Amino acid sequence: MTDDSRITSPARSRRESAQADFAFAAAVSTAGRPTPGRTPAATLLALCLLATAAFADGARPPINAHDFLVAAAAKLVEKDKLDDALFTLAPKAPNPFAAAPGLATKRRAVEQNREALELIHKALAWPYAAPEVANISAPMPYLAQFRSLGRLLRAEAQVAAADEDWGAAAQIDLDCVAMGGMVPRGAPLIGLLVGLAIESVGARDLWPILPHLSPGEARAAAHRLELLIAREPACREAAEMERRILRGTLDELLAREDWRETLQQLLADQNDPALNAYLEDVTKERFVADLVQSQEAAAAAVARPWTRATAAEAKPTGALGGSVVDSTLGCHFKATLVSTRNSLLLSELALHACHAEKGAWPETLDALVPEYLWTVPLDPFTPGAALAYRREGDGHVLYSVGPDGRDDGGQAIAYNVEAGSDGDLMAGVNP
Length: 431
Description:
The protein has helices spanning about 15-30, 40-55, 65-75, 80-85, 105-110, 115-125, 140-160, 165-180, 190-205, 205-210, 215-230, 235-255, 260-265, 275-280, 285-300, 310-315, 320-360; strands at about 390, 395-400, 425. The protein is mainly α. It has three domains: about 5-230, no CATH class; about 240-330, no CATH class; about 340-425, no CATH class. Strands 1-2-3 form a three-stranded antiparallel beta sheet, with helices on one face. The radius of gyration is 22 Å and the shape is globular.
């Protein structure tokens, strides 16, 4: 489900919108916590449907998670010391977190930032809406600050894992995934990219944590992640917000005597000689026409699932078209990649719980439903199809077909996963 599916009447009140989104946020924030029983699927589906109807009338939440996160960022202490320590683990050790260098630095950071962590966890219980942006060049400093908050959550999870509190570590990493899913809401494409980066920070450490989870902890993590996946931000929402912001400020920009120089400054980071030459000669009227055509092409591209075929069909026209469509497709691919990794992680959590309880791997992913999952996880790189899975010896193989859309039988992509990569995206190999 995505925000584009929200259907509501203009008369829907701000209070009703806030209550609907709060209901879903509360369900997600508590879904993985110990409870007497599993929330019925019908109740959770109803919460999802209510949440997707929220804010369709443009209402902003009276209590906004964004404000808690900004307050948390203001409380951060010595955030720069986290960066190097966070990405160093000891993968061959029985506990890769306890044996990793920099553990003392992480512990100190967590203790010094308890107030910031409390504010982050409060934010997760409330609906989120990004601040309104009036100009495409307006600074959004909070995005860099939120990335620091994601790193702080990762440090907290790694400290819990070092202490072998595996269930808590998994839930803290999922807090990071939840926060990453919040940040793009109401933001342009840069907000989507930052949100995806934060999600990836949380999901990455769940892989070495996963083998240590008890069946109940794995169930709880899968339960919560499945809810979070249901509310993953879509690239088309951010692209539409980008279009609105740009068109909303276009008249003001073109009314300036230095409009051409201003455009060149805005697009300087593209480092594209063809685009620079285009801006030297284009008229205002031609620029507006080209921009509208480019944005329509970009909107059509992100309205469909990302595949190499759909990306190739979104043929940009001219220097401006190439810039707009290519940047939007890049975001679309990254969103698809993160969604695929989340789907693999969700499946692996459910498989781990099933194997621990039953002593054997299931024959198919369908066998996980409804005891461990509500639906079979799909492969975003093959729209409508499930992830590939098979039992093999005493273990199993789980993978996505990857960006090439071709099932290579579990032949892993060799290096970093890019849009042009060939091979399969393997669970536990390409996390």
